[in-house]
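Researcher: Re-running this chain for the archive, since the previous output was lost when a drive failed. Same request as before.
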Amino acid sequence: MTNQADPFAPQRSVSQPQSSKWDDTPEMGALFPKGYYRVRIKALSVLGNSDQDAPEDRVVWLNRMEILEPKEHAGMLHFERYYIGTKEDPKAELGVTLRNSMGARSLKTMLNRARVPLSNDDEATCAKAVEAELIVYMVEGKTKDGTPINNCRGYYELGSPEHAKVGQPLSPTLGTGPMSPPVLSTSQGGAASGFPPWANRGE
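Model: Regenerated structure tokens:
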């Protein structure tokens, strides 16, 4: 005997999923799409010594940026770390450490593009960086353990050609391209004395 549906049984309507206030909220670990973003520096700090967030007591700068554009990501935060110190020179006190550090070069480039004056006083540099704006080129990457993360691969000034690319779809073959040349204000002086060793290094 075969089972057949009762033609007289009441039919149940299939309920459609309703919208929720959580629909636009990404889950933890969701990445920003690769592209150009206009950001504002909300906080810049130096980790190190006794700070638990600094690996092996090495000096690390932490940049907390708020995305302003594109609008669909406005208000979200991105954290970028710049690893400066090494095992041999954890406090980055030697000029050779800063000169050879990709983290120091990236940090200097970011500060220049945001038009933040460089100083020997790290706290003063961090304070002047707050509320500064710039354009970043963000890509997707992975940590050593394979965790997906976002990284800033390029920094550009407001009003640069890259500014017009914020929110625009990217070509699959698009690379980061060359960074815009650094802009040093007269107050920075480029190679003037009284500034940190990395202020006179290349980017």
